[in-house]
Design goal:
By secondary structure, the chain is α+β, with helices and mostly antiparallel strands. The relative contact order is 0.25. The chain has helices at residues 13-24, 40-50, 68-79; strands at residues 4-8, 32-35, 57-60, 63-65. The protein contains three helices and four strands; from the N terminus they run E-H-E-H-E-E-H. It is 44% helix and 20% strand. The chain has a single domain (4-79), classed as Glutaredoxin. A hairpin with a 2-residue loop joins strand 3 (57-60) and strand 4 (63-65).
Amino acid sequence: MIKLELYYKSTCPFSRKVLNFIEENNIKDKIVFKDIDLNEYDRETLEKVGGKVQVPCLFIDGKPMYESDEIINFLKENTL
């Protein structure tokens, strides 16, 4: 099974787009959520591992994917 972690900000419109897709397709149980505004450690991890503080970022088995449309396409192909 693929390990999925979504780093996001609740105030970011691109994060909201991905979060809405996840909610609408009932796949929340397949993803670990990391709100970088609520947890400094998660923000630091995003920057250290991903190389930048940009959200949304979906880590797929530890590798980052940043663009909301790419994230949604990946989720469509791999979780639905």
